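Objective 1.3, modelling of assemblies. Example input:
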Amino acid sequence: MKEHKMEYVKLIDTTLCTACRGCQVACKQWNENPASKTQNHGSYQNPQDLEWNTWTLIRFQEYTDTDGNFKWLFRKDGCMHCTDAACVRACPSGALHHTDYGVVAHNREICIGCKACTSACPFDIPRYNKTTEKIYKCDLCYDRLKNGQPAACVKACITGAITMGEKETMIKKAYDRVEKLGGKAVVYGDKFVGGTHVMYILSEPPAVYDKLPVKPSVPMSVILWKNLFKPFTLIGMGAIAGAAALHYLIKGPHEVHEKKEGEE
Amino acid sequence: MTNHYIDLKNADVILIMGSNAAEHHPMAFKWILRAKEKGAQIIHVDPRYTRTSARCDYHVPLRSGTDIAFLGGMINYIASNDKFFHDYVVNYTNAPFLVNPDFQFNDGLFSGYNPEKRKYDKATWTFQMDANGVPMKDFTLQDPRCVFQLMKQHYSRYTLDKVSSITGVSKENLLKVYEAYASTGVPDKAGTECYALGWTHHTTGSQIIRTMSMIQLLLGNMGIAGGGVNALRGEPNVQGSTDHCILYGNLPGYLKMLNTSCPDLKTYLEHYTPKCNDPQSANFYINYPKFTVSFLKAMYGDAATPENEFGYNWLPKLDDGKHYSLMHLFDKMYEGKIKGLFSYGTDPAVSSPNSGKVRKALEKLDFLVSANIFDNETCSFWHGPGVDPTQVKTECFLLPAAATMEKEGSQSNSGRWVQWKYKAVNPPEDALAIGDIQIRIMDTIKALYAKEGGPNAESILNLKWDYKDGKGNFDALKVAKQINGYWLADSTYEDKLTGATKDFKKGELVPSFGMLRDDGTTSCGNWIMSGSFDEKGLNKMAKREKDDPTGLGLYPNWAYCWPVNRRIIYNRASCDVNGKPYNPKRKILAWTGDKWVGDVPDGPWPPQADKEKGKYPFIMKQDGVGSLFGPGMVEGPFPEHYEPLEGPLAKNPLSNQLINPTIEIFKSELDTVANASEKFPYVCTTYSCTEHWCSGALTRWQAWLLEMQPELYVEIGEQLARDLRIGNADWVHVSSARGRVKCRAMVTKRFVPFKVEGKTVHQVGLPFNYGWLYPEDGSDSTNFLTPTVGDANTFCPEYKAFMVNVERA
Amino acid sequence: MSNHSAEMIKVTDGIERIAHWILAATCLFCLLTGLGFMFHSWSGIPNMLGGYYAALWMHIFSGLAFAASLIYGFFMWKKDCAFEADDAKWILNGGGYLWPTTNLPPVYKYNAGQKAFFWCIVAFGALIVLTGLVMWNADSFAHVVARWAFTLHAMSAMVIGSFFVVHFYLGTIGNPGTVSAMFTGKCSKAWCQTHCPRWLEEKEKKVA
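Predicted structure (tokens):
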């Protein structure tokens, strides 16, 4: 990771979210993402899931808690901008990278659409577009940040459910808020993958929420791949080449032993 | 709103009832959440658990159309448990007034009912007067004929059991809400109510709002920071359009529309200028003639003279006793009595009740002029579903209109703030602002009348019509200044209270409606807006200062707020009779001995303890006090629960009067009704969704919004869906006695069945944002289902409670 | 049987050699482009090929050719590469490459090391091809499948890459006289007597 100018954290307080989906539209507008042709699937949630042209969406969930209280949970899903980002680890071309704000941006110019990131991401965020053969995801409006503007979703949020600011300040804000809320409220994001740059204040335990991993981590497969097999490919080939050279020097070439006449 | 959006943050308890604030008034809801952050209790009472409910402390489900029963129960709770704000009720309401001994209430009807006309004779709905013609009062509130006792008696029938059985709300929930809300009946607590179309869209809509007003008076919540009865209006500019008389019975500024029983100006002014013999009542509408004459001067300019009654008879008049609401309009159109329709910024083929009838009615027009941003189902009715274009004679014109950001002008928000806004971009192609369209049409009409003459030619030819800029285009600022009003002669204004005088020159603007005159020396298009400019022409609507001297979020220098920049109306009621604030922590106003300090007070007079110069706080009321007894309503002085036109019950559990006795029943063959019918067993309500706007005529074309809510759906509770074997996202038919729509089923936990009169009653709901024109497969208008019936006072249609059946498609 | 030991004996036919070289070339190409994807520091390789995107497609098509030649090679060589009892003995003696030994069992066409290489290429080649197909269409598979495909692909590359080096060494300077088998198709009789005596014997019997 590069040296940061300043690490930003976007804090999503689900206890203030009214699911107006202004963020969802603002994201599409700023990033000029087209709409999809959708149909009603018996829920307000639409599109059903993140798509190459939908980098954030509100997940609607009808939930009855253990005390029998009905709750309608809203969660703004989107890139969590991990510090230890599996996608960045997995990306072969360097298209996925950390910006100087600590968030994970994506350089589509050099993206090769290999889809390593789509499966590596523990939050299931990056999406592949078959037509452009590229990956798409939130970059926390890097262009806006660079110009001193908050991300489009932050700007659009009316209730103040989405805010952003300097990392430590926001983490403190999150914990203060959770303390005030009490009950089952928790901070989500700072305790794994090196800390995410998008954090939640959840009113329920994380396990309750659809598609939200309780203990997200860089997958074992990615660690094996990138931390073991990747170096050992070169190390292995190099070591064997070295061993061969050594063999050649010590034992020399394996000469054929001509059979002399009548030797039998 | 009696208060304003930001003021919601000052409340201790917020009752959201008849509104889905989070979904439809997100900006208002921001301030509700601020209040919640500060510890306020937020309660949502609504048939359906919505995005608003999700952010409230709790949600209480209530059967559609039973709000008066619910609130009547609250009045009963407050009165019988002595939870009311005694000092406030005695001094600032008509609770102590003694009512006419002949006034009666019996089995759902008040005295004076005429069943043939479906109308009351209000003769007995009066007070006992003393020798001076001032209402007699019993400040102990013990007299059995005093308003308080009559009210208490009236609502004693609204017991917890009864209310629970009508509304389907459990007794625990009723008590929970009543206790929470009644806790604000003390000087240092404020409770506010937020409503919207969930209250107005009923045959009892006006009375629901009145019931809440009564509760607010009982608890001392009117005129205070964090209090009030707050209609949440939105971007459709309902506030601005009603201020400027979108309703047929009004002239601008809520003056009454002319009618045939007032054939001349004198009769009209005598009829509508209230009289009061109590010297302490400001009775501000005593100034009615000044507002009316100034309005006529604004209409007809120099042509309006005392000799011709300022052009009074050039204006059209309503036939006495007849109504001209949207529903009447389409009823008459269906009868073939209306030849042409100008439909601007509206889509009645989707948004009007009983859309099937509306679309049939449009076929009987000779011409239809639509001015809209997009084509809509109204303008395109001639090629709609089931219509043979070759058989439609109507000539349709679609005038491309400019969108709101493509024109300059004022916009009014719910808090009565009138904010000037500037044009951001030019309209596309040959689209024009509605003002420009009107200028061109009226110019042509005037020229034709000048050339050819015609009936009532004077009313057209004399019309003052100088609202163009140098290039001949519509000039919004010129209109705004005429609305504010001008001095038409050099004049001197004398302040009656202080004796100070000020001189004005002819051509200067009138800086306040208090200075308007009835002699033709001032003009004013809308008296409540007089003061939006200063005399030199400073546009106060364009002010954008962020100072907040009270710390209560009044922001007095941000835009202009009618009346006279008063941010909280009836604010003198926030202080005791000596002008001392009831709640020193939320001090919006205080009497310093010689003047009021804080918000702009409701009149400069001293508080009412000063028997000589002091005035009562409710200056717009004839008697100067809030009306617990409200004879102005057509249904009666005390709101009473009646069932919706179509409901699940064959008998009103409270009386033998099933439905509102004063609503007009429409009788065309397309106006069928099925009350308590086995064919249509489910209560249905309609609503909007956050993602679409009104009929969806604008938002359905917006791909990002359509993506989120692509097609019509009906929300059904899990139990009903199980009973009907309907799966989530299945296609279903929803039908009423009037029509049928096809839509997706959205099976949800958010609708729960009600226990009503011992029976299980299911309720379903649909949004009204879809029409056949676009998207092609998004289904058609929900209003095929709704009945042609409206509130008896306002004729606001009953979109919120009717009966349907649901079947798998 | 009086042939001079310098006499050249045909050990491979044309088809065999073509299959081998396609397999070798595609394998090497995939290996190099793969390394280019794996290490940002090796970006020179994809850049030389016209960028990552072009390199990816070349990698994919090369991989498909590798798969085709692998399948062909499998059927062609599987019989000669079937393990037999003596192979264990051969391995226990280090194939004669690591320490002096006189105990080597006579080899038929391929010795146990070559067989192991073959089966390794078959197994990891199949794995790398299959995982490659999954990666190519990662969005059609469950994430956990796709995720492990990337990992197993890399692991296979590691194994194949390593064996590739061994094969290269033993096929060239490690065993003088071997490399001609894949160019001219012929090796000296002496070479055959050393590396595949039983095969030679059988071949000569047939001729006789």
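The longest strand of chain C covers residues 8-10.
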